[in-house]
Specification:
Radius of gyration: 25 Å
CATH architecture of the largest domain: Roll
CATH class of the largest domain: Mainly Beta
Strand content: over 45%
Largest sheet: 13 strands, antiparallel
Shape: elongated
Distance between the termini: 56 Å
CATH topology of the largest domain: Lipovitellin-phosvitin complex, beta-sheet shell regions
Number of helices: 8
Oligomer: single chain
Helix content: 10-25%
Structural class: mainly beta
Number of strands: 25
Number of domains: 2
Length: 468
């Protein structure tokens, strides 16, 4: 039954993609050159449609009756329907045949997500539609040209089958009908939005071709990590190579994924259907020459730097994409730093009552408060210091080493306060062996905290706009 269903899905996918002209007249050539090319005027309108159905797996801590109880796992039905339409200019590479950077303007970017009885409808903000995508070799990186994306906005545009990655599936040589070649693991990480690939058995097969197009089948399995979770993915699809444009212009993919519960993200059992269509054109009113020149190089665009601004908590900050929001309450937000599938650290950011000028907490008082809070777990004071962050706020830091239930831990405590007004504390917990992996990631968070409120001078500070 399963094999028959897969074959049926594959047949429907092929029939949906193959054009009548390609089926009617196959070429007489012995081989076809599948080497991609990027022109100086490489413009296209890209449409990506994604449908996902399945279930999310989460740990329900609310059902635990005591701290020693293991949280129960729950399976929640879910569905996703997303559509992206953007004008894209792929920048010609300085070496090789594949572009590594594109500038795009999203004319449409919206989705509908349903989990059990709740739903969300994320969309890209109007002032975040001009975006740079970059392929460093692996998962794509993104940055909005006029400000920082939120996590929700990044998740919306970082989708399977991104147009910047499709040509990487090609063999870069002439091949005959029925020829096969393996997909590079790094290419599959890029196409499937994975952080890393441990094993890939995906292969492409040239099915047929004529003077205008080549039809290629794709099938196989991939194992790796995505957003800190291990995942197993089966793929089956087809893509169309335009021999005149020398690029992939259509891509249909069926995906079956089984993802475990991660340190900061839920597990998933799901099936997805993806359709990508590219329509080349001469120019775009949204991608004028001056815009492209300004975004042609990295400059000071903050790739993969996101904006966090919890409602009514009195602050906003910038963070790299390895930090995930694990929980958000009325006065606190918990972040988890996940790197290469490992939980490196947890950071609890808490809004504190304001204090007036001259009554702010001193470094000595802050250290005393931490000693009192940790009690017997307080082992060794490693360091303490104070400085002013990039928004002019006074910052205190106390680093403590100790143990909890015989597990060696390190705590990094921070207090961010203006001369007068709202304050926030950051408490970072790291297991001993992860301290080196954390490096200065927590201090980068502290330096990026901007306090908001009537008494804070930074309320009218400049927006999170990357400098170019």
């Amino acid at each position: 039954m399963v094999v028959a269903l897969r074959r049926a899905i594959h047949l429907l996918t092929v029939l949906a993609l193959v054009s009548p002209s390609l089926r009617a007249a196959e070429g007489t050539e012995a081989t076809v050159d599948l080497t991609p090319r990027v022109s100086q005027r490489d413009f296209a309108e890209v449409t990506i449609e994604l449908e996902v159905g399945g279930s999310l797996h989460v740990r329900d801590f609310a059902q635990a009756t005591s701290a020693d109880d293991a949280p129960q796992e729950r399976n929640l039905p879910m569905s996703v329907s997303a559509k992206l339409i953007y004008d894209e200019h792929r920048l010609a590479p300085t070496a090789g045949a594949l572009p590594t950077r594109s500038v795009r303007y999203y004319k449409e970017a919206a989705a509908v997500l349903k989990v059990e009885d709740t739903g969300l409808a994320p969309k890209l903000a109007d002032d975040r539609r001009l975006v740079v995508a970059e392929n460093p070799g692996g998962r794509l990186s993104f940055a909005a040209a006029d400000g920082l994306l939120t996590r929700e906005e990044l998740d919306l545009i970082d989708v399977t089958g991104d147009s910047l990655a499709l040509d990487s599936l090609l063999p870069n040589r002439a091949v005959a009908a029925d020829a096969t070649w393996p997909a590079d693991p790094t290419t599959m990480a890029t196409i499937l939005s994975m952080d890393s690939v441990a094993a890939s058995e995906v292969q492409s097969t040239l099915d047929k071709f004529n003077h205008d197009f080549a039809l290629i089948r794709l099938a196989g399995a991939v194992v790796g990590t995505a957003d800190g979770s291990t995942t197993e993915i089966e793929v089956r699809g087809v893509y169309l190579f335009d021999r005149k444009l020398r690029r992939v212009t259509r891509f249909n993919l069926a995906v079956k994924e089984k993802r475990s519960i991660g340190s900061a993200t839920p597990g998933l059992d799901g099936v997805a259907k993806l359709r990508v269509n590219l329509k080349p054109f001469e120019s775009s009113p949204h991608l004028l020459p001056a815009t492209l020149v300004a975004l042609r190089t990295k400059g000071q665009l903050q790739l993969d730097t996101l904006r966090l601004e919890p409602a009514k908590q009195g602050y906003r900050l910038a963070h790299d994409r390895r930090w995930f929001v694990a929980r958000e309450a009325r006065e606190s937000t918990i972040l988890r730093l996940v790197d290469q599938g490992d939980l490196v650290a947890q950071c609890t950011i808490t809004s504190l009552p304001p204090k007036s000028e001259g009554r702010q907490t001193t470094l000595q008082e802050f250290e005393r408060d931490i000693r009192f809070a940790l009690k017997d777990n307080f082992g060794e004071l490693v360091s303490s210091r104070q400085w002013t962050n990039s928004f002019g706020h006074h910052c205190l830091e106390v680093v403590v080493r100790g143990t909890t239930e015989e597990v060696p831990l390190e705590w990094h405590y921070y207090l961010v306060a203006p001369v007068s007004g709202n304050r926030v504390s950051l408490a970072v917990t790291i297991q001993g062996e992860m301290v080196n992996r954390l490096a200065a990631a927590d201090r980068q968070l502290v330096n990026a905290v901007e306090l908001l409120g009537a008494n804070n001078a930074t309320e009218t500070a400049t927006r999170f706009t990357p400098r170019r």
